[in-house]
From TrEMBL, chain A:
The organism's place on the tree of life at top rank: Eukaryota
Subcellular location: Nucleus
Protein name per Swiss-Prot or TrEMBL: DNA-directed RNA polymerase II subunit RPB4
Keywords assigned by UniProt, alphabetized: DNA-directed RNA polymerase, Nucleus, Transcription
GO biological process, one term: DNA-templated transcription initiation
Major subcellular site: nucleus
GO molecular function: nucleotide binding
GO CC annotations, alphabetized: DNA-directed RNA polymerase complex; nucleus
From TrEMBL, chain B:
CDD domains, sorted: RNAP_II_Rpb7_N, S1_RNAPII_Rpb7
Protein name stated in the entry: DNA-directed RNA polymerase subunit
Gene3D superfamilies linked to this entry: Nucleic acid-binding proteins, RNA polymerase Rpb7-like, N-terminal domain
A Pfam family annotated for this UniProt entry: S1
Keyword Nucleus carried by entry: yes
Source organism per UniProt: Rhynchospora pubera
Ranges for domain RNA polymerase Rpb7-like N-terminal: 8-64
Amino acid sequence: MSGEEEENAAELKIGDEFLKAKCLMNCEVALILDHKYEQLQQMSDDAANQVSQVFEKSLQYVKRFSRYKNPDSVRQVREVLSRYQLAEFELCVLGNLCPETPDEAIAMVPSMKTKGRIDDDEQIEKMLQDLSLIKKFE
Amino acid sequence: MFFHIVLERKIQLHPRYFGPHLRDKLVAKLMKEVEGTCSGRHGFVVAITGVEDIGKGLIREGTGFVTFPVKYQCVVFRPFKGEILEAVVTMVNKMGFFAEAGPVQIFVSNHLIPDDMEYQAGDMPNYTTSDGSVKIQKDCEVRLKIMGTRVDATEIFCIGTIKDDFLGVISDPSAAS
């Protein structure tokens, strides 16, 4: 069990390895796994039997919980969120949960407000509005 | 949370494969050995997306097998304590309910379900508020916070809560349009 320094995603304590790693939103994972599944289908008729249960469950999960379906919107979401000083992990939590108000956003990603990165609710409000615009025009 | 990371593994290959398709055989063996597995450090390896580098093979003394160090990119799912995510309820009983988020199972004890929700037994056991407006039952979607994780040989198991603000049933059916 990990935990010399107590792990806590709410404070962005997720270990150096994952802080620096590329984080993926559910909608991005859906695109990757779909692509891989298609590749497998082209190579053999029996793709369903070749993938692990972990793959199947993950694919079902990300398809069910993707807020954005088409690749262009997915790219736009990442672009919009990247304009703010967010860590990869925080960016993906916001992209996955799509909070509707600044209060909700801060509850989902409490670490956002630390170190003076996002000081006021107006910034958050603008971010959420930009996100919902992408959804509207999807 | 899903991550795209680079991992390394030593893959052993029998001499019968030392031919023109060596690399393909190596990648196939890597996939078979790694996809679907789980470790405490990296979580579940969901899918390998590419091979970055295959180092020089080393012949093992006595057996003739060759070990290749392979660097590969993969998608992993690693839940963190304190992380908030969405999950599907799979089972409800009077101790609480089980939910699944991808390959990970999460248990939410009745102590971490809001006090105004009560367990109702029956064909479709559920937790419901006194006015019946919110119901948690099998196959419904909930947003929960992970309170702790436990790793055993083949999987990661989590404990969660829905007692905080903005957690609980995702009541907007058109959300994932």
